[in-house]
Amino acid sequence: MADETARPGEFDLIARYLRPLADDPAALNLTDDAAAFTPPPGADLVLTKDMVAAGIHFFPNDAAASISRKALRVNLSDLAAKGARPVGYLLGLALPADWTADWMADFAAGLAEDQRAYGITLLGGDTVKAPSGLTLSITAIGAVPSGTMVRRGGARVGDVLFVSGTIGDAALGLRLRLGTIDGTPAGEGAGHLLDRYLHPQPRLALAEAVRLHASAALDVSDGLVGDLGHILKASGVGARIEAARVPLSAAARALVEADPSALGSVLSGGDDYEILASVPRDHVAAYQLAAAAAGVPVTPIGEIIAGAGPALVVGSDGAPIRLERASHDHF
Amino acid sequence: MADETARPGEFDLIARYLRPLADDPAALNLTDDAAAFTPPPGADLVLTKDMVAAGIHFFPNDAAASISRKALRVNLSDLAAKGARPVGYLLGLALPADWTADWMADFAAGLAEDQRAYGITLLGGDTVKAPSGLTLSITAIGAVPSGTMVRRGGARVGDVLFVSGTIGDAALGLRLRLGTIDGTPAGEGAGHLLDRYLHPQPRLALAEAVRLHASAALDVSDGLVGDLGHILKASGVGARIEAARVPLSAAARALVEADPSALGSVLSGGDDYEILASVPRDHVAAYQLAAAAAGVPVTPIGEIIAGAGPALVVGSDGAPIRLERASHDHF
């Protein structure tokens, strides 16, 4: 039997779990209908909204703190790729009827941890009953000096393509979890891949370098090749990337060696949340230096070439690699 | 068998139905990861987010254009009550698997119509698969001259309480639809009440008057008495309202006369989306003039009194009216 005292109504839920997250004066302690937000002077606001839903973007039995952090981080990842500094966020929370106080406390603790880590605060939102599965809708707000948001459409022939971190870990982590891949990485490898799926790391430390040096950028959320395609389409250019230069973790490399189908997951699987950036050649050295100073590894994987069309992916022999699909479709 | 050509994937869906709604340059044609929004100089942004879910806030078989407009309007209503001019919005759309092209076209047409009516534009958003029922999460952005957002906490003893329009229509419309009320209003009365439930009218025309003259305000979404309680709590005051002065439509008045239980729905039912404002006595005449100039009827229903606590509702004999509940709980 449900303990009703442990399951407050909307106002108590907000007061107990969410108000402690809203320490910016603009949030008015979540006691008003809206936030009163004073934009930083001279800034453009970078506005992004990503929804995540149970069974589509996460497993319903994932830890609550993992779900809430993933929902927030996928939004922060967009801000990072646009070169923006995060400012705050609004949280829309459609809660299924069977939520518990423990679950909600864990959910809020995850957000609190990330707010500290990323220097942001909750500005407002809404909490409603979900028709069935948990659905989160976060609107994140970032800031850039006016006119400097990095877009998808600025890549030019000759630019070098860089990705941050390693690619494919999350997609392989998901396949491990689903049991759809042969082989298991040794040691802590499996844990690493599963963690990369559960806990994306928004590359906010790289945002300033991206803003100063990239001609175009986005975060890799649906798959490297497919997301690169968005840059190419918006920029009216092509690209050639070398599969062997795509940076892999040791665990991912082991899986690719054990099961060649894993390479497809690496190149076109989702949930990496690394930054793919095109960098003009005269900015390459500065971008690499700025990334190193920020503590974020970046790797050149190819270049922008003339001619519109999907990215050409070549193997170490120079021959094109044909992918079954370019990206992972969450929709 | 489903016609797959009529059911595009996420990118085509956005291009076909949502991109035409996004004609502000900040939206970048919805082809980027984020909007690049230049705030109006000297303004505070008013940020609000309301989610609506099938079976909770609307009937799954409501017309798509009614659902989309309701989702947008409940957000615009918050902006109006805060004295803000609407600027734009982001749309989070969790779509069940059985959506059709016709449904989506109707959904977008409703938004297009309201965008024209209210002078706003779509800035960005996200479209995902819904675990089951349709869920919409809208973040609306408004603007006020810096420091002038009308809050809940400014009501002072002696202020006059005004509501716009008529109260209770939507709650009675819902009861008519559910068949939980005796009597049927004559003529077009039932249609009026049902329409008030389906199509809230955000009082944006009144926003400037509210901003210039109200000490506190909110939109009545969960019920007049309950929502007044939020102003009282935030302001540390009490209120006395006279039930007989609460403005009713002819249809609502007929139902209250036929079924006394209807008075409870009027005073504590949800979905009115009228503006409740406390107005200092030396601003009352100016507020009434400004409201008349805006074409929005406003009616004084009581006053702010000393002492914290829930609103005192009195009948025409001066005796307190006891309500079963103060508000409608959507949660």
Automatic annotation (TrEMBL), chains A, B:
Highest taxon of source: Bacteria
Pathway listed: Cofactor biosynthesis; thiamine diphosphate biosynthesis; thiamine diphosphate from thiamine phosphate: step 1/1
Stretches assigned to the PurM-like N-terminal domain: 32-144
Binding of Mg(2+) 3, residues: D33, D78, D219
Residues noted as binding Mg(2+) 2 in the record, renumbered to the chain: D50, D78
Keyword check for ATP-binding: yes
InterPro entries: PurM-like_C_dom (IPR010918), PurM-like_C_sf (IPR036676), PurM-like_N (IPR016188), PurM-like_N_sf (IPR036921), ThiL-like (IPR006283)
Residue numbers binding Mg(2+) 5: D222
Keyword Lipoprotein (UniProt): no
Binding sites annotated in the UniProt record for Mg(2+) 4: D33, T48, D78
Residue positions binding Mg(2+) 1: D50, D126
More about this protein: Reaction mechanism of ThiL seems to utilize a direct, inline transfer of the gamma-phosphate of ATP to TMP rather than a phosphorylated enzyme intermediate.
Family membership noted in the UniProt record: Belongs to the thiamine-monophosphate kinase family.
Role description: Catalyzes the ATP-dependent phosphorylation of thiamine-monophosphate (TMP) to form thiamine-pyrophosphate (TPP), the active form of vitamin B1.
Annotated protein name in UniProt: Thiamine-monophosphate kinase
Gene label: thiL
